[in-house]
Amino acid sequence: MRIPPIKSIIAFESVGRTGSITRAADELGISPSAISHQITNLETLIGRPLFTREGRGLVLTPAGQQYFGEISQLLVQLGRATDHASGARAPEVIRIHSSPSFGLLWLLPRIRALQAEQQGFKIRLSCSYEPVSFSGGAYDVDIRHGHGIWPGVDVRTIGGETLTPMASREFIAAHGLRQPSDLLRVPLIFSESPLVQWPQWFSNVGVSQRDLGYELFFDRSYMALEAAQQGLGVCLESTLLAASYLADGRLQPVFDASHAVPVSAHHVVFPAAGAERVVPVVNWILDATRTPSQSV
């Protein structure tokens, strides 16, 4: 039986998750050359390349993807086995990580309802745009924004999410917005977050456009929604994230549902190992996203 050094496994997991030797080195507190050395040793032991270089980053090969999925689960099991051997009590905390926009706009208003439903657990919420690992035991559930392709974890996609232009009721009335082409003459708010951007939305509704003059640029959905709520323009954002704005009338869709674009942008992610512990929380989140009334 060939068992690689644990240092090589940890380095491999970090590079596989971050796609970068430099970021893995920063995360583990060692030099990039040490990370490269560990990866080389592991590839030599296995006899196959685990990464290929793509641009400035590293991408897992098919063999690397399979190995990453199995190793990630084993690291979680190793951490739990160590806790059991040391007599440590299993924590009664579900540690959820999410992007700041989802955490602030959707999850935080529902934390009380989630805690009431999941009695016996405390909910700990952390928000950032940094990739997180389950191998260290710091998180149990991660709500990610993207295309839903992450090896080595269980991914449950949140359904029913759409992107649509939104603005305040007063802004829509003041500018007489009745059809998509009307948006070409009003301030548009640009947000980096959505998977579908303004040019794609205009193409989808059959409106040709050249140079779109954006009034404001943001890198966070919650900032774009807040700017639109203050009457600064029209934003193109997720109905999932904007649920509370839409429910209380601070924002409203500029057009009917036929002008909304379906997306699969948010995903509930968790390790397959020990999934039975977090599945009730995962199912609650998925059910709540399908039930608008289960909110604030």
UniProtKB/TrEMBL annotation:
Q: Give GO terms: molecular function aspect only.
A: DNA-binding transcription factor activity; sequence-specific DNA binding
Q: Which SUPFAM superfamilies match?
A: Periplasmic binding protein-like II (SSF53850), Winged helix' DNA-binding domain (SSF46785)
Provide this UniProt record's keywords sorted from A to Z: DNA-binding, Transcription, Transcription regulation
Annotated GO biological process: DNA-templated transcription
CDD domains registered for this protein in UniProt: PBP2_GcdR_TrpI_HvrB_AmpR_like
Q: Which InterPro entries match?
A: LysR-type_TF_proteobact-type, LysR_HTH_N, LysR_subst-bd, WH-like_DNA-bd_sf, WH_DNA-bd_sf
Q: Where is the HTH lysR-type domain?
A: 4-61
Family statement drawn from the similarity comment of this UniProt entry: Belongs to the LysR transcriptional regulatory family.
Q: What is this protein called?
A: LysR family transcriptional regulator
Q: Which organism is it from?
A: Pigmentiphaga aceris
